[in-house]
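Q: Okay, next protein. This is Universal stress protein family protein from Pontibacter korlensis. I've checked the sequence twice, so it should be correct. Can you predict the 3D structure?
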Amino acid sequence: MITIDAMMVCLDLSDIDDKLVAFARSICERLEVRKVYFVHNIKVYELSEDFKEWFGDVDLASEVEGNIQDIVAEQFGNVADHEILVSEEPNTEVILADLVKRYKIKLTVLGKKMSDKSTGALGTKLLRILPCSMLVFPETARFNIQKVLVPIDFSDASVHALRLSKNLSDQLRLQLEIMHVYRLPGQFFPLISEEKAVKKAEEVVKGKFADLQKRHKEIAGVPYTLVRAANKSIAERVALHLEKGRHDLLVLGLKGNNPLPSLSLGSVPTEMYNTDINVPLWLVYSEEVIK
């Protein structure tokens, strides 16, 4: 059973907050979540002089907390133990990373607007700096999750994401599909026929799947799909398969063995985050990686 000891929900006082808090409620109703922290950081230095002149010495933190309390009361209720945390720090990423460590957060829930409304710069920074798994909820996503897609590359990180997805699917009775995107070494064409190359590549990948199923018996019955990247990136192929298969959740494993934090995500999770998809994106670190 998947248990989340502490979950953090990042709010930005925009229209997406209501959806994000409601989504947090949906998570708590379906999984065992012991404590939820609703957080917001006020960047005081960004407030205009006009604002300061109009409102003077107003206790902005208390006002923001009251606003969040209203949203939580309406969209979350008392479905789980929760607390509202409002800070006034110049660097949002740093204070959120500190909260993750201080409260031992296992999962951070983050809202994401479409690219025509936001650059997503803060979210990208949080993905690189927060020492916990993240669940990204696009503003166009649905709460009702029935089908889960987990792309794998046979790395330890992707296998961890697969095993978590299987546990989640068993617990909530969801449909789970595994996906692998492969590439062909184009420099050998036309020395080798494309048909033979595809056949050989798929034989190799099927062998890897057979080995994976032997090592992890619990995933033996999970259907998998092989997709050739061809002229598209892996992330583009994943996005197309998401839409075609009408999946409701995408799970990706995050790698953390790179000494440079800015390079630890991997290109596919980063590109998927920056793609306008309509399903929640669960980016998963294993406990070993976080430690």
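A: Here is a summary of the prediction. The longest strand covers residues 175-182. The two ends are 21 Å apart (CA to CA).
Q: Noted. On to the next one.
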